[in-house]
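Sample intake sheet
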Amino acid sequence: MFEESLFPDLPEKKGLTAPVFLSPIIGSGERICIAAVSIIENTFEVRRAFPKSDINALSRLNKMIDVTIAEVEHHLSAGNGHNLGTFCPGVLGVTLGVVEPGLFSDHQMALRTVFRNHSMFHTE
C-alpha cells in the first residue's frame, strides 16, 4: 500500500530515556518534570527541563533540581549507565519516571522526546 521510500529511515542507535520528577508538595500527587535522562551507546546526558532563570524566585527548588541532576550524573558515571532503574534519589519528593527504550539519532532527539511527553515548561 505504501512505498518504503516515502518514509524516512528509522534512527539506528538504541537508547534509554527517562523523565525525572519532583513533587513540590509531598503527598499532593502533583509532580513537575525537572529533568530528562538519555543513555545512548555508553554515553549519557542529563538536562534540566527549564532554565534556572525561569524559577529564580524559587531558589530552594533550583537547589533541589541541581542536587538531583548531580545525583543522576554521579549514578551514571559510577558505571550504572545501563541500569538507570536502580537510581535512588536522595531528595525527598523526587522520582524517576518510567525508563523507556527507543531508537534515536542523538541525545538531543532523545531528550526532546522526553520533554515533549512529560514537561509543559521545557523550551528550546
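Comment: The mean pLDDT is 83. Residues 7 and 33 are 32 Å apart (CA to CA).
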